[in-house]
Every structure is written in C-alpha cells, then in structure tokens.
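Lab notebook page, bench 4
Experiment: in silico fold of construct C2
Operator: M.H.
Input chain length: 141 residues
Purpose: comparison with the prior construct
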Amino acid sequence: MAQTVHKLDYYYVQTPNTAGQSAWILAALRDAGVSLLAYSGFPNGHRAQQDFVPADPAQFMAAMKKLKLNLSRKKICFLLEGDDNVGALTSILSKLAESKINVTALDAVTAGEGRFGAIFWVKPRDVAKAAKVLGVMEAAS
C-alpha cells in the first residue's frame, strides 16, 4: 500500500500537567462514543497541551462541551499512514523541505503488521501549500 496523507481538523486543550488529566478526558470521550484518529499530549510550560484529531468533529465538540474545558478553535494537521519501511518519512519530509515548508512538529509510530502512521503540523500559512505539494485534496474535513 502506498502512503496516504489526510488533511484533518484538530483541536487542543490546555490542562494541568498532573497525573490523570488525559485519562479523565479520554475516558469521557470513550463513554460518549467519540473515535479519535490521533491524539498527542505534551508539557507546555507548567501546563499540558492535549491535541485531538476526531473522526467526527461535531460529535467530539459536543462531548468536550460537557467537560467544560476551554477548547481551541479548529486547527489543521496532517495524518500520514502507509507501509512501514526504512526511511518511510523521507519522501514526505523531502517534498516539504524542497518547497521550503517547515514541519513544526511530528509524531510517528509503527502500527504493526508492516504499517506506520504519523501526525504532523506546519504553520497555518503553509497548510494550503503543503496540501498541494503532498497531493492532498483541499476540501476541509
């Protein structure tokens, strides 16, 4: 299978950087039947930032509203999936670099059975250009 890149909506929340914050939010999303395509959490100063890429943004936003968290406005990320092999990210990153597009963050993981996935972000001003360079359809999710 070839690599595919999807341009997707994501949202984030800032939470206390304490044990259990992610578990509490993810359990509430599970209980609401919200499916996530990707999730990333990391420290941000004395707080933590949690990024969510929902399969159904409207369902996600409704569930998050019940948690009374300060949800960011919609932002854009890219989700890459494909066959896992040595240098799997090289082609995508090279295309972006050749187009002078800086990747601001990237998380990648092997998915087993010869597959991998990655989520990455570019500056908002570079989203349309990155989508074009990578052959992603421009329609917003």
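Observations: The beta strands are 4-16, 36-44, 47-54, 75-83, 103-112, 115-122. The chain has two domains: 9-73, 76-133.
Next step: discuss at group meeting.
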